[in-house]
Design brief:
heterotrimer, A mainly alpha, B mainly alpha, C mainly alpha, A: mainly alpha, two-stranded antiparallel ribbon, C: mainly alpha, 2 domains, 2 strands
């Protein structure tokens, strides 16, 4: 059995146990959850580090027949593009557990969170269409329940449903497209297969690709937050409880982008070439408009929510360039943004738990009470504005290079987002953490040691990649080469 | 070369950063932190002296102690550092000023650890700019320096004062200044970022030395490798201006200077010292290192425009300084005035590429950079000393201090005279060289700048007069004089001001050799 | 007419069921075991199941009783399914007052099951009609099992009226079909229709009459009106049985009729008709379900919608389509039984079947809440529950058959479905009941809990390891369609 399989199913098994045993003590749940999170983190790290760069391709592959009659198998493996994302998921699940230490109904919370993690791990590792959809949809319902049960009372029901429906709409439409691919491939190959590695090799007719590419790409890009179907995401981020926002913005949006790449661009390169010229304009709107909208928000969490829209726009923009730099940057950006936004939401949650408001003008001076959170937020903020020395720069620089190579004017317009981002991040950092600490916040408690560990882990990755891109770029490079080879 | 020597630049570059991190693990007691920071900051200085001793001055025009290690090879960028004469001088200036600034910051009382950590990180950022031989690496350090400076101003800047940003919205002055500093500089860097990407794609590498070979040699109708259908010349001109604006913002050149008076005024004393002493030099360094060699033709054709801006900076900077009543703001504007000369020299050198005048002007420019580093740091420090005691910087509040604090008065007089360009002190030499070099090339703009020099005298004398010589104001009668620590900060600066005023040749020799090489490069 | 031994073996499940009916009657008369009768019935059904699986598995397609019945993989799968449905229904009903303690109920249940089993096997128009009536009449009685309860009485009566009308239409259609084709056995009908000398619209018109009759059984739009009222009024276990086994039986006979009794040339006609019906059924069912406040009514509309999804597989009329439909029915039967089981448990704990009364369930009975979640998410088509794979297969079949528009209507409907299933789940997991109720746990009798537990596990297992079950469906399809 591939260690990947263990990694995928471990969270679900533990989560299932949590859900099935109602009498489990909270303390037991916490210890078990922490252990599971740690194991998932370490195992994903182990897989990442043991990915053989020289060999490339898909590794840790496991292929077991699932439904041979239809050519469906449980087929998983990681390549250079997905290995960082698997690691990212490991990081977010671990830190997510850490910062959720005092959740109410914690047994069910961790139960659902872990099932969600399985879905996410599964999608990143899937090498079979059916496997991919299977895991993709697994992520849907825990997400919904996590938001409506533990979310922000004001909007959770609306936002949870909105998010779930958006994601479901996107994915089921993509499913129809995927099935169309399968049968088209059957017509060409003579047998039925859901295996992505085989489907990749099928040269679908150009007309077919032109018809189906937008369906599949958009179906997933919805989850990646593409304009104009992005507005589930800020609402969802804001309504979700902290750990879920981390998961949500940190990992789930990558899920959409990754699947759009995997099933859209990699399967139907001709369709991609035909349609991406206008899609890249949408992503440009994402990037710039998202940043502007973020800068006028008064709610701390909405700022971060819209910043995700802007940053995920960069990922999709990178993909849309269809060149080496774009893919490379987008691959790193997925990881970088994942860690960064997880960090952001963790910090927002810490502040909100103490202040019980996220209205930016009502906050202030929190650096005195939560110095760790403040420093972490600043580190995240600098990453977000593409400051060199942090992973955001390492990611965004190649993306912009890719866009240059594609169409210089777009790069020139898109770059505006950087300065807008800088302005709102600075504004928020200053209004929330600096200035006068208000009277009513004088006695708020500090952070738990778990919180600090979580923040430190996340920051370490942002800075580590910022200074030593080598710990991530070779992986993404290998993955990018693979994608480019398919595009030829 | 021993491995230590081989990695000398890396050691110089990262000692402050590592030291800063170590500070984070030391006990958070002000005393420990201060001394630890001082010790850490002295190490790069010592190493720089070692570097100086081992530097081959005859080959000052070449990059020495080069190290090239893989860094971001996926996009063709490497960790590539090296020093030539120009960088060496700038590195020396930086490593010299930082310990002094740290010493000057001993009066900081709140959150000393964070302050010192930021300060040391800042030093790494500045050194990196001077040492990087890779465009991407250069950009990294270029931006890295912003962050600590931003927080230094935001957190430790002068706590008083408010600014009404727009009707009904007031900000603390230091917050406003910090934000303005950050946003201006970042916005300025955007063009640079885009231009760097273009260069990287067109030449296929970010290595400075390779770009230097390939970029100016480009021919053809369009840029290769990217689908930008605008004529090559236009593209180059756009990139040129992108570079120029980024660097001009940092220098700063009129009309990009408005962030500076705010930032300098609101920054803590040591922050202002470093801002004026080193950060402004980053922009000038960028002109010398990148703009001239990479865009010789564009630089030549747009030299008058640049000279115009420089002359305006020199003239208007002086006038504005003259009009100030805030002592620190006065000194801040003086920086604009002085740095205007540097850019004037750059413009002259671009115009007269390949000639003796160019070398002369550039010699003056680099020396001016160094000198201004010394005097501006000194002036800001002295203003800070005064402020620490009086808690006001308004010149109208002062008067007759000379008799109360004679030591301080003497030091201030000395430094101010150096800043004024009194013959025998350092600034005179460099400004003289600049004017000498620029006059035959750009007589009109040089003349305007000289007008600025006139007002330099006016504002310096104004400052001195109101602070030291007007009738004594009663409430300052018991003002204490400078402490030993403060003397220790200013003394090295004063010594250097004097030495460089009398015997600038040691430094000029290095500068001259590297400028000869630069001018040769520009001339092709 | 003598029965050869092979026929005896083929009819073993039915014969065993008859024996069980006799035993149940005896038990009831002699000992009055009251609620324990449910356990005995269930145990008896388990025995029938085991016996059938062990001894009566068909090899190939075998004509029984002179060819009016067929003993093949297709009918076998359905018959086992009905047995499971009856088994679970018996267990759900045993603790329901005035229902579970009545021997008559169990007899009616078993009789109806027998009728359904014959429906699955029927290979002759007359046999079809007989089987349908055998299955239906006990259902009418059961739906109106509480004569004193007006809702139940209304349900029984309504169901009977509609059912009688549908039977009339069905039998009318069959008569005409016999008139056209000159035969009542399916093979004969095919042969007769193939030599048609009359205009094609006549065949189509006749077909429509027959299809209308079947559409009533499966509650497809526009023959669905009875379902919500009947489900709401009937005793909940009966509603469960109606919505699962009865619907499956309707599909069993429908699919066999379409594929075995009609020549391929008619496919475009009934294909188009059923495709439209599938789309309408899904859409109407789902959108009306959105507005429901009563859980049983909601499940009624959802079951209409699911008939639509299953029809997609039927319309595909392919190997994969039939497989998908059978698989879907199996999954749907298990899932809907759990959903109704939860309602039964709620009602017996003093609650109502209003969605509102689910509030606080997560605390009052975490286990029941978990069952509810399993069932509803499976109905919604979310993995790892088997409803997901079932939906994927029918959509796959549609795409394979080139019915992409139908697949798209299907997936869009799945979204609407997800919406209202989640609303119910939200009630159970998010909202709290009034304070005094929150602290009163909902107790589920152990037998039901075990039954629901087993079914829930099955739902998950089938969602994860679907190959064996899919193979069953494929076996059914193969024996029906050949190849």
């Amino acid at each position: 059995m591939s260690p990947l399989t263990i990694l995928i199913f471990l969270p679900m098994v533990v989560g299932g146990v949590f859900l099935i045993i109602p009498r489990m003590k909270d303390q037991t749940v916490k210890v078990l959850a922490l252990l599971t999170g740690l194991v998932a983190f370490l195992l994903s790290g182990w897989i990442y580090l043991n990915y053989d760069l020289a060999q490339g391709g898909y590794q840790f592959v496991q292929k077991s027949p699932w439904l041979p009659a239809l050519g469906i198998s449980y087929h998983v493996g990681v390549d250079g593009m997905s290995a960082p994302l698997v690691l990212l998921t490991g990081i977010v699940i671990f830190t997510g557990v850490l910062i959720s230490w005092n959740m109410p109904r914690i047994r069910e919370f961790f139960g659902l969170l872990f099932i969600l993690a399985t879905g996410v791990f599964g999608v990143f590792a899937s090498l079979d269409l059916f496997t991919l959809f299977f895991f993709y949809e697994i992520a849907v319902f825990p997400m919904y329940l996590l938001i409506v049960i533990w979310g922000w009372k004001k909007t959770r029901e609306y936002a949870g449903m909105k998010l779930t429906l958006y994601l479901f709409v996107g994915s089921v439409l993509a499913l129809v497209g995927a099935l169309a691919m399968v049968f088209q491939a059957k017509a060409q190959l003579g047998y039925l297969t859901f295996d992505l590695l085989e489907l990749e090799k099928v040269a679908f007719p150009v007309a077919f690709q032109k018809l189906w590419f937008p369906v599949v790409f958009f179906g997933f890009a919805v989850l990646g937050g593409i304009f104009p179907v992005h507005n589930w995401s800020p609402d969802g981020h804001v309504a979700a409880p902290t750990a879920v926002s981390m998961f949500h913005a940190g990992v789930l949006m990558k899920l959409g982008a990754f699947a759009a790449l995997r099933l859209g661009i990699m399967m139907m390169p001709e369709g991609a070439k035909f349609h991406l010229p206008w899609i890249i304009l949408l992503t440009l709107v994402n990037v710039v408009y998202g940043a502007f909208i973020a800068s006028v928000q008064q709610d701390f969490k909405y700022v971060i929510g819209f910043s995700s829209v802007s940053h995920m726009g960069l990922v999709l923009m990178g993909f849309a360039t269809l060149n080496y730099y774009g893919f490379l940057g987008a691959g790193i950006q997925m990881f970088s943004h994942g860690v960064m936004t997880a960090l952001f939401f963790a910090v927002v949650g810490m502040v909100y738990d103490r202040a019980h408001t996220r209205h930016i003008p009502s906050l202030g001076g929190f650096i005195k009470k939560l110095p760790w959170a403040a420093v972490a937020f600043i580190i995240g903020g600098l990453t977000s504005m593409g400051m060199p020395g942090f992973s955001g720069f390492i990611a965004e620089f190649p993306i912009f290079m890719g866009v240059w190579k594609y169409e210089p004017w777009i790069a020139i317009v898109a770059v505006i987002s950087i300065v807008v981002t800088a302005s709102y991040i600075l504004r928020v950092a200053w209004r929330v953490f600096f200035g006068e600490l208000r009277e009513e916040f004088q006695d708020v408690p500090g952070l738990l040691v778990y919180d600090k560990v979580a923040l430190a882990v996340l920051c370490a990755f942002l800075i580590g990649i910022g200074w030593f891109p080598k710990i991530m770029t070779p992986w993404v490079h290998v993955g990018t080469e693979y994608v480019l080879q398919l595009l030829k | 070369m021993s491995p230590w020597m081989q990695h000398l630049l890396t050691l110089i570059l990262f000692t402050p950063l590592v030291g800063g991190v170590i500070l984070g693990f030391l006990p958070d007691r002000p005393k420990v932190q201060r001394w630890a920071a001082l010790v850490v900051s002295l190490i790069p200085l010592a190493l720089t002296l070692v570097l100086w001793a081992n530097f081959d001055f005859l080959k000052a025009g070449e990059f020495q102690f080069r190290i090239r290690l893989p860094w971001y090879d996926a996009i063709g960028a490497a960790y590539h550092v090296g020093v030539d004469g120009l960088s060496l001088v700038m590195v020396l200036l930086t490593t010299l000023l930082v310990p002094l600034a740290v010493l000057a910051s001993f009066s900081i009382q709140e959150r000393v650890r964070a302050y010192m950590m930021l300060f040391l990180i800042l030093e790494t950022g500045m050194l990196g700019v001077f040492l990087a031989l890779d465009l991407l690496l250069f950009f990294v350090f270029w931006e890295v320096g912003l962050v600590p400076m931003f927080f230094l101003i935001l957190q430790w800047g002068s706590p008083k004062g408010e600014r009404e940003v727009w009707p009904g919205f007031k900000l603390q002055a230091r917050t406003y200044a910090a934000m303005k500093f950050m946003v201006y500089t970042m916005a300025g860097s955007l063009g640079l970022l885009l231009a760097l990407q273009m260069l990287g794609l067109v030449t296929g590498t970010f290595d400075y030395l390779q770009v230097l070979e390939r970029w100016p040699a480009l021919t053809g109708a369009y840029l290769p490798n990217i689908p930008w259908r605008i004529p090559l010349e236009t593209a180059k001109t756009l990139a040129f201006w992108a570079f120029v604006i980024a660097f001009a913002l940092k220098v700063p050149v009129w009309p990009f200077h408005t962030w500076l008076p705010d930032a300098h005024t609101e920054a803590p004393t040591a922050g202002s010292m470093i801002l004026a002493g080193v950060l402004l030099k980053l922009g000038a360094y960028g002109f010398l290192r990148f703009v001239l060699p990479l865009y010789p033709e564009q630089a030549q054709s747009y030299a008058p425009a640049l000279a115009f801006l420089a002359a305006m900076a020199a003239l208007l900077g002086a006038l504005a300084a003259w009009g100030q009543w805030d002592f620190k703001r006065l000194v801040a504007y003086s920086s604009i005035n002085h740095m205007g000369f540097v850019v004037l020299a750059v413009a002259a050198a671009a115009k007269a590429a390949g000639t003796e005048h160019a070398v002369q002007a550039l010699n003056g420019a680099v020396l001016q950079m160094f000198n201004h580093g010394l005097t501006a740091a000194g002036m800001f420090f002295l203003v800070g000393v005064l402020y620490d005691r009086a808690h006001t910087r308004n010149l109208k509040d002062f008067g007759g201090l000379f008799s109360v604090v004679p030591l301080y008065g003497g030091v201030l007089m000395f430094t101010a005279m150096a800043s004024l360009g009194l013959p025998g002190l350092n600034n005179f030499v460099s400004e003289f060289l600049i004017v000498r070099g620029a006059w035959p090339v750009l007589p009109l703009f040089t003349a305007i700048s000289l007008g600025g020099l006139l007002f330099t005298g006016a504002y310096i004398l104004k400052g001195i007069k109101y602070a030291l010589f007007s009738p004594l104001v009663e409430k300052w009668a018991r003002l204490p004089d400078m402490t030993v620590r403060e003397v220790l900060v200013i003394a090295p600066l004063m010594v250097l001001m004097l030495v460089l005023g009398i015997w600038p040749l040691t430094l000029l020799d290095v500068i001259h050799r590297s400028m000869v090489a630069l001018v040769a490069l520009v001339a092709g | 007419m003598s029965l050869p031994l092979s026929d005896l073996q083929a009819l073993l499940p039915e014969l065993a069921l008859l024996v069980l009916m006799g035993l149940v009657m005896l038990l009831d008369l002699l000992w009055h075991p009251r609620r324990k009768l449910g356990v005995w019935t269930a145990l008896g059904l388990v025995a029938v199941l085991v016996l059938s699986l062990a001894l009566a598995q068909p090899s190939g397609s075998q004509a029984v009783w002179g060819g009016i019945l067929r003993h093949d993989g297709y009918s076998f799968v359905f018959r086992m399914l009905f047995l499971v449905g009856a088994l679970v229904t018996a267990l759900l009903a045993m603790d329901v007052p005035h229902l579970g303690d009545k021997g008559a109920f169990y007899l009616l249940l078993l009789t109806s099951t027998l009728g359904m089993m014959l429906m699955a096997m029927a290979n002759n128009l007359i046999m079809v009609f007989l089987a349908v009536e055998t299955a239906s009449i006990p259902l009418y009685v059961m739906a109106g099992f509480y004569p004193k309860d007006r809702a139940s009485a209304e349900a029984g009566f309504k169901y009977m009226l509609f059912g009688a009308l549908a039977s009339a239409v069905l039998v009318y259609g069959m008569t005409l079909l016999y008139g056209l084709a000159g035969a009542t056995d399916f093979a004969g009908v095919v042969a007769g229709l193939q030599q048609a000398t009359w205009p094609v619209w006549m065949t189509v018109a006749v077909l429509l009459l027959v299809l209308a009759g079947f559409a009533f059984k499966v509650a497809a739009v526009p023959f669905h009106f009875w379902a919500p009222d009947v489900y709401t009024g009937a005793p909940t276990p009966i509603a469960a049985y109606l919505s699962t086994a009865s619907k499956a039986a309707g599909f069993a006979v429908l699919v066999r009729f379409l594929l075995a009794a009609l020549p391929g040339s008619t496919l475009p006609w009934w294909g188009a008709f059923l495709a439209a019906m599938a789309a309408a059924t899904m859409t109407v069912g789902n959108f009306l379900a959105l507005a429901q406040r009563n859980l049983k009514r909601l499940l009624a509309y959802s079951s209409i919608a699911h008939a639509g999804y299953i029809l997609i597989g039927v319309v595909a009329a392919s190997h994969l389509g039939v497989t998908a439909a059978v698989f879907y029915l199996v999954v749907y039967l298990l899932t809907n039984l759990v959903a109704f089981g939860v309602v039964v448990a709620l009602e017996s704990a003093g609650g109502t079947s209003e969605i509102r009364s689910l509030a606080g369930l997560y605390k009052r009975s975490p286990l029941l809440a978990l069952f509810l979640m399993t069932a509803f998410l499976s109905l919604a088509g979310v993995p790892p529950f088997s409803g997901f794979v079932a939906k994927v297969w029918v959509f796959t079949a549609a795409v394979e058959a080139g019915l992409i528009w139908l697949a798209i209507v299907g997936v869009l409907n799945a979204i609407v479905g997800l919406y209202y299933y989640l609303i119910v789940l939200k009630m159970a997991y998010v909202y709290d009941a009034p304070e005094e109720e929150m602290h009163r746990p909902v107790r589920v009798p152990r037998v039901q809990a075990a039954a629901l537990g087993v079914l829930s596990v099955l739902i998950v297992v089938m969602g994860l390891v679907f190959a064996p079950w899919f193979a069953w469906g494929e076996w059914a399809a193969r024996t029906l369609m050949g190849g």
